[in-house]
Design goal:
111 residues, alpha/beta, Glutaredoxin, 39% helix
């Protein structure tokens, strides 16, 4: 089995991995029971591989780690926040037919 490129976040690692990171960070807030979240997973692995070295892709299960999701203002899932210097600079809610292309476009706008 291939090793995942995306980083699994916890409430304990959220600040250091996301808010204190020098890299551009994409965080996917998801849950196991969320169908669109499961659809986004493989796309995020592709994005993580494609932007390796330029963007840190992280995944946070909101059922296990609710505090950080609340702190990030997540009100629905999937929500994907893009962070630069610890600040949210862009966001995608839900999965659209052009999800992967939309994600690429938003990431490239901040690189």
């Amino acid at each position: 089995m291939e090793e995942r490129v995306a980083v699994d976040l916890t409430d304990d690692s959220y600040d250091s991995e996301v808010l204190e990171s020098d890299a551009l960070v994409l965080v996917d807030f998801w849950a196991e029971w969320c169908g669109p979240c499961r659809m986004a997973g493989p796309v995020l692995e592709n994005i993580a591989e494609e932007f390796k070295g330029n963007v840190k892709v992280c995944m946070m299960n909101i059922d296990e780690y609710r505090d950080s999701a609340v702190k990030a203002g997540v009100t629905s899932i999937p929500t994907l926040n893009i962070y630069k210097a610890g600040q949210i600079v862009d966001q995608i809610k839900g999965v659209t037919p052009s999800f992967e292309a939309d994600l690429r476009e938003k990431i490239n706008a901040h690189l």
